[in-house]
Amino acid sequence: MAVQYRHRQRGTVALAALAAVTAFYLILCVWIGASVPKTQSGLLLSAIAVLIILAPLAWYLSSMTVVVANDELRWHFGFGRGWRIARLEIESTTIAPHRWIGGYGVRWYGPERWVYIVSGRDTVEVRLKQGGWRRLGTDDPQGLLKALSSNEQHLTTSHA
């Protein structure tokens, strides 16, 4: 399995959003704790709980890596679980915009339609032969599309 393309995108939007939420929550805890001293221990415990939950989430969404190989397309967030699609299952590919209001991370858009994105507004839509699609967020849509297109041509000519 020869790798034709590998690209890692930093999850700047997701990390910035998580940092902003964490900072807001900690400032709120300090403010309430200073105003109502009896709540300090409870606020401290809740702040620790929030950090325990958000730190792994930030680590997970810190980046997304996409790999195009001869026989498959693979992607994963951070160092987490990965997904893959056999190249023979791909019908077509195109660049598709992603509005920020759609959110970041893993998003479900209906049966067999998923978006995986950590930052930015560009995705490459991979349409599947059995129906549905996967949109992969990237800051290099042209490079990913070119790698997927050359791979499609390679597969169709080598199996002819």
Distance between the termini: 20 Å
Mean pLDDT: 89
Poorly predicted regions: 153-160
CATH class categorisation of the largest domain:
Mainly Beta
Number of strands: 9
Within CATH, the superfamily of the largest domain carries the name: Pleckstrin-homology domain (PH domain)/Phosphotyrosine-binding domain (PTB)
Tally of discrete structural domains: 2
SSE blueprint and pairings:
Elements: E1 3-10, H1 12-35, H2 40-60, E2 63-69, E3 72-77, E4 82-86, E5 90-97, E6 105-108, E7 113-117, E8 122-128, E9 133-137, H3 141-158
Parallel strand pairs: 7-9
Antiparallel strand pairs: 1-2, 2-3, 3-4, 5-8, 6-7, 8-9
Helix pairs in contact: 1-2
Q: Care to describe what's here?
A:
This protein is α+β, with helices and mostly antiparallel strands and 160 residues long. The protein folds into 2 domains: 102 residues, PH-domain like; 50 residues. It is built from 3 helices and 9 strands. It has a 5-stranded mixed beta sheet with strand order 5-8-9-7-6, covered by helices on one side. It has a 4-stranded antiparallel beta sheet with strand order 1-2-3-4, covered by helices on one side. Strand 2 and strand 3 form a beta hairpin. The longest helix is centred in the first third of the chain and has 24 residues. It is elongated, with a radius of gyration of 20 Å. The C terminus is likely disordered.
